[in-house]
Design goal:
- This protein is of the alpha+beta class.
- It has 3 domains: about 15-215, no CATH class; about 220-525, no CATH class; about 545-615.
- The protein contains 16 helices and 22 strands.
- The protein has a 15-stranded mixed sheet that branches. Strands 5-4-3-2-6 form a 5-stranded antiparallel sheet, with no helix packed on it.
- The chain is globular and about 90 Å long.
- It starts with 14 loop residues before the first strand and ends in an 18-residue tail after the last helix.
Length: about 625
């Protein structure tokens, strides 16, 4: 099966990204399926991608000189072409050195969703169109290497999923509310663009309907599929998290919303139960607080968040919730940030914005997670669950019987958030999903009246581990490390070891957020098309000269601190002499560290491709 991720325009060439898979052939006559591929053929002038569907004579031809993509006949493939097994085209990418062919060389089957195979891409390769790069200058060579590493970084991020026959971008409820014409569309045409992470790469293929069968949308996030049994009744339990490609990025460089109302780190999470033909679905969302605020890294452990008071927050806020209401219906906001300290102004602003909205479709609940659950009192989360229980019953869930009749729809959604929309958020979402699942399994006849999910030890373990894995996946994609508080999600208890691991992950986050997130943000912006590499540029966008203090001050600090330690270990003839040396070098190291912290923003790894002002 070939997956076209699409065409990403970079500096002076284009690259074809190919997903190499060995898939079960799509069923004949499935109008919205993409054809499986059996081989790719390479000549000095053209890449040919051959479909393996019976009776299909068309071959996709990608011109290595003009970069044009078109269909041709199998007989046009010359005998001298080099053949390799492939099953999917990702797209084309242009880098400084010219054209590249990018292939995914390995995949892993996640499971079957409603009898459709779901896959995760796990390994990739990048092949140059050109035979040599000797025509590049030293600066161009360095830039080309940098852009390649960015594309490689995004492709290596765990969590790219696809199906050749099932639309992963839509919930069950959205799919049920469609016309027969929609069902016959290609996966590319019908996909929800919010969750198509290769949408920018697919832009040239979108304009050519005849090659849509070679294109498959790819989502980014997390999918777990488990075949379970309770009371002798077998069912599939599925958890899907879809990360939005709008306002995507990393933790401290992407906060709040943009002018279109797209929230940072927006994730749609769907829990599905499939039993004897019956289907149930419960959907939740998470996303950054939807007004204009930022939290730039500055070497401090927790930078102070800043609210941009120079803009009209209500315009973007209104756009955000207008789109949310259209997509999901009524909104219940669960804000889990602290109601004191640096997070307090954010909570107050969010509450005031909802009041100013004056919309009965949006309700607001504030729950100070850290205060309520302090001193390991995590059982107090039940207070929040009980507080919204009546609303959750009112919203319901989506339910279809074995004959395809819709018995119930979900009429509203919980939109949860904390500062990062990761750790606290995932804990609360898992509790709300657990409560919904209890009702779903009873309605589907899996649980007897009076039975509780908690009593089903084996399934409860599967459930908790999947939600913890979901937390880790979303956290790694946004913050760079696994999630915090997953010991509670996995076991239902907060442990001392969990606190230790949270501390370790927090230290790793600190390092990545300050010293590697600029590169991570650039990689995502490049991949999603937020940045387009110019054909010709006078100065390199990647080769930025650092200010003198960037190198001098850290060296001075390290030398001064080292001398202070040496003076302590190698005492002088008198204690006064030793004290004088220690005070001198100690003062020098502390003074230099103070200057570095004061100018912290100059020492962090900031994005180079998209100006920071444009990401506020």
């Amino acid at each position: 099966m070939a997956l076209i991720y699409g065409n990403l325009k970079l500096d002076s060439g284009s690259a074809v990204i190919i997903l190499i898979e060995y898939l079960v052939p799509c069923g004949a006559g499935s109008g919205n399926s993409a054809g499986d591929f059996s081989a790719g053929h390479t000549t000095p002038e053209i890449f040919f991608v051959e479909a393996c569907d019976d009776g299909v004579d068309d071959v996709l031809a990608i011109d290595r000189v003009s970069t044009e993509v078109a269909l041709t006949a199998k007989k046009d493939i010359p005998p001298s072409a080099i053949t390799r097994p492939i099953c999917g085209i990702l797209g084309t990418v242009r880098l400084v050195a010219g054209m590249y062919l990018i292939v995914i060389t390995r995949k892993k089957k996640v499971g079957d969703l409603l009898n459709h195979s779901i896959w995760k891409a796990t390994d990739y390769d990048i092949i140059s169109y050109k035979k040599t790069i000797l025509h590049l200058t030293d600066t161009q060579l360095q830039d080309n290497k940098g852009f390649l590493s960015m594309i490689n970084h995004v492709l290596s991020i765990d969590g790219l999923y696809f199906s050749t026959s099932y639309d992963l971008t839509h919930t069950l409820q959205r799919l049920s509310n469609t016309s027969p014409e929609f069902q016959e569309m290609s996966l590319l045409e019908r996909a929800d663009q919010r969750f198509v992470w290769n949408g920018h790469l697919l832009r040239e293929f979108s304009a050519q309907p005849e090659i849509h069968k070679f294109a498959v949308p790819v989502i980014h996030g997390f999918i777990a599929i488990h075949s379970c049994s309770v009371n002798g009744k077998h069912f599939d339990w599925i958890l899907i998290s879809r990360r939005s490609c709008f306002r995507a990025g990393v933790r401290y460089y992407v906060r709040g919303i943009d002018s279109e109302g797209h929230a940072a780190n927006f994730v749609e999470t769907e829990q599905i139960v499939y039993c004897n033909g019956g289907k149930a679905s419960f959907v939740q969302t998470r996303g950054s607080m939807p007004f204009f605020w930022s939290q730039r890294p500055n070497l401090k452990y927790k930078p102070k968040p800043q609210i941009n008071n120079a803009v009209n927050h209500m315009d973007g806020f209104q756009r955000h919730f207008d789109s949310q209401i259209i997509s999901y219906g009524k909104q219940v906001i669960i804000n889990l940030v602290n109601q004191k300290g640096s997070e307090k102004p954010l909570e107050q602003t969010f509450s005031q914005m909802v009041d100013g909205l004056g919309n009965g479709m949006v309700r607001y609940f504030a729950f100070d997670f850290h205060k309520e659950c302090s001193r390991m009192r995590w059982e107090r989360l039940q207070i929040l669950v009980d507080q919204v229980a009546e609303i959750q019953d009112e919203f319901g869930y989506f339910l279809v019987d074995s004959e395809g009749k819709v018995l119930m729809t979900q009429d509203g959604i919980f939109r949860s958030n904390c500062m990062d929309c990761l750790d606290r958020t995932n804990v609360v979402q898992s509790l709300l999903a657990h409560r919904s699942l209890q009702a779903q399994l009873q309605r589907l006849g899996v649980l007897h009246i009076g039975q509780r999910i908690e009593e089903q030890v084996q399934f409860e373990k599967i459930y908790k581990n999947a939600w913890a894995d979901n937390a880790n996946a979303c956290a790694k994609q946004y913050a760079g490390t696994g999630a915090l508080k997953t010991d509670f999600t996995r076991t239902g208890k907060r442990t001392q070891w969990g606190l230790v691991m949270d501390g370790w992950n927090s230290l790793i986050r600190y390092y990545k957020n300050n010293f590697s997130d600029g590169f991570r943000q650039d990689s995502i912006d490049l991949f999603l098309g937020n940045y387009s590499v110019e054909e010709v540029y006078s100065t390199s966008p990647l080769q930025i000269q650092k200010d003198w203090k960037f190198l001098a001050l850290p060296i001075i600090m390290v030398v001064a601190f080292s001398m202070c330690i040496i003076c302590l270990l190698m005492a002088g003839e008198t204690w006064t002499e030793t004290l004088a040396y220690v005070l001198f070098w100690g003062t020098a190291s502390i003074g230099t560290a103070t200057i570095i912290l004061y100018n912290g923003k100059d020492f962090v790894d900031a994005p180079k491709l998209v100006q920071k002002e444009k990401m506020d």
